Structure formats: C-alpha cells, structure tokens
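idk why but the lab printer keeps eating my pages so im just putting this in chat instead. protein + flavin mononucleotide:
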Amino acid sequence: MQILIVFASQTGRTAKLAEAVAEGAAEAGAEVACKSVEEAEAADLTAADAIVLGSGVHMGGIESSMRAFFERMAPLWMQGELVGKLGAAFVTAGAGARGGGELALLSLLANLAEHGMLLVPMHNRMAGFGSAGCHWGPVAWTNPRAGEPGPTAAHCDAGRAHGRHVAECTARWLAGSDAVKG
Ligand SMILES: Cc1cc2nc3c(=O)[nH]c(=O)nc-3n(C[C@H](O)[C@H](O)[C@H](O)COP(=O)(O)O)c2cc1C
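predcted complex ->
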C-alpha cells in the first residue's frame, strides 16, 4: 500500500504537519512518500493508492502553488488515472478558527473529488481532534492571538491520527478490491 503526501508550504509549518501525517500512515503499514508541490510528478500520483494534500492558507484559500499543481496534473484527469484512489486533506492557517482553513480543506477535497477519488474525512474520535479537528481534515493554527503557535504536539497528534486512518481505510479498500477481482 502506497500513500503519497503532497504539500504546499512556504515557511515550513505545513511541511511539519505533513511529516506527522506521514508518520501515522507509516504506523498503519503504508509505504509513504512525502513531496512538496514542486517535487511531485504525475508518476508519483499514479503510483499511489491514496493521496493526501496539504496546504498553508493564503488569503482565505489554498496557496497558489497548490493551485498550479492542480492545473499541472489536469492531464491525469483527462485520462481518469486517479479514479477510485483514496484522498484526504490537511491545512495550516495563521488565525484561530476564522482564517479560511475550512474553505482551503474543501478546495483540496474538491480537486480530489474532481479526479473521481474517494474522500476520507476526519472523525471526531481521533487523537488531537479537540485542538486541530475539523470534519474535513486537520487544521493547525500557527499564529493564534494567544497560546503556542502550531503545529503543536496536539496538532501533530491529529495529523498522525488522520494519516493512520487514511492508511487503514486504504488497506480495507484494497483488500475489498482484491476480493472482487477473485
Ligand atoms: C500571503 C499569505 C497569506 C495568508 N493568508 C492567510 C489567511 O487568509 N488566513 C489565515 O488563517 N492565515 C493566512 N496566512 C498565514 C498562513 O496560512 C500560515 O502562516 C501557515 O501556517 C503557513 O504555512 P507554511 O509555513 O506551510 O507556509 C497567510 C500567509 C501568507 C504568507
């Protein structure tokens, strides 16, 4: 089972949360590749069983480098190459609670849905949900008015739990498709 994490990160915070997501997926038995939007290529996406996208929040939405990545990968959509893979998302945002984190998560998930992928949300029993939980995926607050800037240890717990859950869902999905193939 191969899981690809692709992140857009100008100042390293989303990259740190990406590492936590990767650790969780590896704990659940996945082979994990973690690449920036600049590094990731079409072949990385087609080789993966699941793709997890992460972005810093810029001006209420995803980073422009992530948008450019979506457009660079559009030929995969033309060929339906990613149909039936699993997908998930995470973000980091400066301002506590109202910075556009949820909209950014929805943009990431909308792109995965456009490719015909199956979306894995974040459920509220996961570790770290209380501090970084959103049903669309983890959100780390990196410049709150009060308290420690993220990603904090609790934010990373949420990222790790999300990565683990994505890998567990992927394993179940792959086992099910093997059973159908006989
Ligand atoms: C140009 C720019 C625009 C930003 N816009 C927002 C915003 O709309 N909402 C928000 O919560 N944070 C905003 N931020 C803060 C970043 O989302 C936050 O610092 C994030 O954790 C950066 O992630 P990175 O270190 O992975 O680049 C902005 C930062 C930059 C540089």
